[in-house]
Amino acid sequence: MRYFKIIRGYKPDDYIEIDETELKKAQYCFMLKKDAVYSGGAVRGSEMKAIQPDYQRSMGWNRGYAPLAEDWGEIRERGVDRECRNLIEAAKEEVRVTLASGRPVNAPNVSSGGFLPESSTVHPLAHTEPAEVSTEGELQDPRITKMRNEFIEKSRMLPPQKKAEAQEEAARQDRQDKG
Fold it and tell me: Which among 38, 59, 69, 164 is least surrounded, fewest beta carbons within 10 Å?
């Protein structure tokens, strides 16, 4: 079992411990800035700074232990660093693909690693309220579908600078359409 930290502050011990079963939920809540409860405690989505491997707990060491050079060698030798990075990347990619698909997704349950009932479906473009979705799971407003597809196309595989510019452009377009 691998363990991870949800960093929520700037002090060395300002984090919540989670295991790999809660990693996808943590990535979802981190990407959409959603509040959630984990086995290690509760955290507001707006307070989440990062999700990082918890090498100390994964290796069975105490929480405050500062690994020495030999310890980092052992972490690399056992492949814990690669495995944790791969788990994080896989969770990020799965959440990103699910959100980019445009289909409504079930928000992660705040008390367990599972999902909420169908009535709790949240649309991936809505950061606060569920969007209106037809029975076929498609957005009712074709303008939103068009904007979403344009945004996804512009932001796919772009460097961070270009991705930020595409997000700003999409927000500008959204304000113009509303205004």
Answer: 69
